[in-house]
Amino acid sequence: MRFGVIADDFTGGSDIASFFVKGGLSTVLYTGVPDIGEAPNAEVCVIALKTRTQNRKDAVSNSLEAIRWLKEQGAKQFYIKYCSTFDSTPEGNIGPICDAVMEELDVPYTILCPGLPVNGRTVRNGCLYVNGVPLHQSPMKNHPLTPMRNSDLVRLMDPQSSFPSMKIPADANEEEVNEQLAKLQREHTRFYLIPDYEKEEDAEKLVQMFGELKLLTGGSGLAYPLAKMYKHHAEAGGFEPSHSPAILLAGSCSEATRNQIKEFEQSGGKTYFMDPLKLISGEETVERMWDVISQHKGESILVYSSDAPEKVRDIQQQGKEEVAERLEKATADLAERAVQAEFHRIIVAGGETSGAVAKRLGYKGYHIGDSISPGVPIMIPIEDQRIRMVFKSGNFGKPDFFLQALSLT
């Protein structure tokens, strides 16, 4: 094992795993810390946690448990994968987790690198942009769980972390960076560096400067060039497609996912809206939804609860946690029934929704296959290799994502 990775949610784990595979490293993804004693037969092991929205104490504890397991299995380098749009609330978990892992691994510094230019996430002058728009002005500013109210990574990190964060000027060469590093190490026990990352080709420079650090943190933007440094074989993937029925489940309220639902409907795809208010009142039930799905088993059907931010805010007046819990449970129920009914293609949109489905289905590990779009791979459960699963972050993918996922699975 070369890299041991912890991810803050399930789609984040599959995201970074896909880029390691694309770069040529065999990769497995586990949901939570594996209960197996031996290291997986792979060059990269990704452990998907649920630390993005977890309470801080448990998020840190679970992260350290995963890092220690990876250390025991012989990982040489470690990577903390968090959302490429960061978590900009002062109570966010990125700082506490990174602080604790730095201390656990006894490293003096690491980088904060959320950039992923291929998906429109870039860092310029230490500020995070989404498709050229500052984070706090992008559609992500209204995220229902982690609203994005700032775009300056130093200002985002300072309230969360015990250690200082320093920006690296975009035009700094390796010698200047090394001089800055030496100065910082004289002044601070531990600290973070924030490099700019505006173009895909910037990744090569960043890997050249920081690729051998014991600990890296960020989005998945560095995984592909890191993998190319160590690869021993051609691009991985290559699993056969399935010809079974498919069910698509969408819980993300992101603009990208809502556009993908619209495109699917306009293409003639069958859809069903899971109304949160009706679900809470009992007017809507999993049984009723499953009856509709069963009637259309010969064709793919998309069940979604995604809605516009203003409607989501109105619904959340019923209780944000209760609404989210009921929707996630219903979606997981549908996925479980689908697998039992031999739907061998399960396609899910939304980080929290994907996590709920993955937890319910109970598969412990996945082989990582080809990607539907950057950061969204096809995954094959180690325990049942008939199944093809796709879990995507709400913001990922082009408008025809669901159509592509059906075609490629």
Automatic annotation (TrEMBL):
Q: Which reaction does it catalyse?
A: 3-dehydro-L-erythronate + ATP = 3-dehydro-4-O-phospho-L-erythronate + ADP + H(+); 3-dehydro-D-erythronate + ATP = 3-dehydro-4-O-phospho-D-erythronate + ADP + H(+)
What's the EC number here?
Answer: 2.7.1.217
* Domain of life according to the entry: Bacteria
Instruction: Spell out the InterPro entries in the cross-references.
Output: 4-carb_acid_sugar_kinase_N, 4-carb_acid_sugar_kinase_N_sf, NBD_C, NBD_C_sf, OtnK
Q: Which Gene3D superfamilies match?
A: Four-carbon acid sugar kinase, nucleotide binding domain (3.40.980.20), Putative sugar-binding, N-terminal domain (3.40.50.10840)
Gene Ontology terms for molecular function: kinase activity
Tell me the ranges covered by the Four-carbon acid sugar kinase nucleotide binding domain, including all copies.
Answer: 248-402
User: Which SUPFAM superfamilies does the UniProt entry name for this protein?
Assistant: YgbK-like (SSF142764)
Query: Which UniProt keyword terms apply here?
Result: ATP-binding, Carbohydrate metabolism, Kinase, Nucleotide-binding, Transferase
Four-carbon acid sugar kinase N-terminal domain residues: 4-225
- Pfam families (alphabetical): NBD_C, SBD_N
Q: Which family does it belong to?
A: Belongs to the four-carbon acid sugar kinase family.
Instruction: Report the function annotation for this chain.
Output: Catalyzes the ATP-dependent phosphorylation of 3-oxo-tetronate to 3-oxo-tetronate 4-phosphate.
Q: What name does UniProt use for this protein?
A: 3-oxo-tetronate kinase
